[in-house]
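#help-structures
NK: newbie question, is this the right format to request a structure? protein is Polysaccharide biosynthesis protein
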Amino acid sequence: MTDNQNGQLDNAQDQMLSGSAWMTAGSILSRVLGAIYIIPWRIWFGDYFLRGNALYGMGYNIYSFLLIIAIAGIPSAIAKQVAHYNALNEYGIGVKLYKRGLVLAAATGIICALILYFGAPLMAGGHRLVIPVLHSLAWAILIIPTMSLTRGYFQGYQQMAPSAISQFVEQLARVAYMLLTAFLIMQVFHGSWVTAVSQSTFAAFIGSAAGILTLGWYYFKHRHTFRSLVANSRNRLHVQTSALYKEILAQALPFIILGAGITIFMLIDQYTFFSIMRLATTYSNTVLSDLYALFAVNSNKLIMITISLASALAITAVPLLSRALTNGDRQAIAKQNTNIMALFMFVMIPAALGMAAVAGPLNRVFYGVAEQALGANILTFSSMISIPMGLFVVISAVMQGLSENRRAVKFFAVGTVIKLIVQFPCVYYLGAFGPLLATAIGMTVADWLIIRSLNREYGFEKYSLNWAFRKIGLYSLVMYVVVLATVFVGGKFVSLVLDPLSGIASLIVTLLGVGIGGYLYAYLALKNRVADMILGSRSASLRRLLKIK
């Protein structure tokens, strides 16, 4: 390999790390903020919390699915195609793609918002209280497709900061409105908990408005740079408007299915769990609603923090792989695939095991002591399942970046069929754990098929990947055991001065476990040079900072 090729591969890895850092920061901050709000929200809802959270989750699942259809995969498709044309120094075509995409985004947003609003009685699945929640969510669909498209345009330029910052601003505005309305309705005016939930979901519109204003400010600030790139383009390619639309839609449609992968699995749970459990048990609707909240909303909200790490990697990977594919550089593709898988393992495996280790106190911090044992066990199980879920997010994005869209959709369809086949026996015999196990089985099958296809078509640097997997797996298990011991011992000490089930005591134990576990994993990875494969030259500076030889 020439020095120039080495430099290009290193530069691509640096771009992926830099982009991943921005997207991870944005995703993590947004997800953490979206989880922390639940603490005051739970307190203000009081006895209505589990029912309110279940209602919130059922409405959001339907909304998320329609939102993905409204977005239609256009942002990721735009990011991929803009990166493709930018690599050819045809920046002008990227601008045309964006403008044509805006028309599509506005149209699909209006259509899907109308479907959600007027189709709410049918989509509620017999849960009449879900209808006002869906009505409140329809407004957000008008804005979010345009906002997401603009993020995709910036990502096509490898500019991840605008997406990350706007994502955080969006979440901040959303949470602020949620908490304000929940407090006023439940505590000041002592109103209906259903009204409070509806206002909490309407907050999605408030957040999206703040997010798109942030993106507009960023573009206005850097407009001269974008105009300069367009002015200095080669301008040798001429693509008809109809061809641009076809190109966008051809890339976008598979993104709908794959982007909705986790949401589709959650909708399967939402529409089957109650009916299967009525056959298996004599539980009341209130009890079933509480059980649904425990596995589909409570634990899901926390594991999505770790899955958002995978989402950040996926968003960064698509334009980089598209550029390597455009240049016909199969060696760069194999290198990128290896880097993506190694970075996923480096982050996701310890994050999932770490959350499983602190599941007990973490669950008490966010959700109190109601259903504590069952909630903690469900969170532990969910944490493990977040690994195949996060892996699907990453590797399906890799397939899309390599224009293997049809194959990726086929593999997901196989996983979905498996999920449907095992759903009934799993829920019937395992209750609230059943949907999680069915999801794990379906996702694992889809993951295996995709990885096998990537290996056959492009290959991985197997020695490096196997070495990284063994080391990361070992260090993650060591960290898991240490954190479990820390939680146990820390809980004993804290109980000497505080109620061990209180929120403060649980927070102290959680932070203690996370701090010790995080430092231990970082120390082992840096000390034994595993981090060097993932972080490159940045590892040396981290070793100096932490005084590791």
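mod (FA): yep, format's fine, and the tokens are attached above. The chain has a mean pLDDT of 84.
NK: thank you!
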